Amino acid sequence: MSLMGKEGLREVAEHCVSNAHYLANEISNLEGFELAYSQPFFKEFAIKTPIPAKEIIEKLKKEFEKEKKPDVDGSIKLDGVFVIGTAEGPAKELKL
Question: The whole model's pTM is what?
């Protein structure tokens, strides 16, 4: 990260914030899904879900395996809440 310099690090942080807020907004627009908390967030947020988070994680794992994408971390388990963290790359169209 030191090779990125001050501006590079800032750019990565801005991508993280942008991706997280874009994704939070898109998910919140789905019927039955909403942000779990109203506090500001950087790149991680929690979503209240109408179905168990475990089911969402299992479906994502299957989809990611098909497309050879990085694994989904299902280690955080809260009843009715799904915790999401975004990466620093540019936002891409979601298939929700």
Answer: 0.63
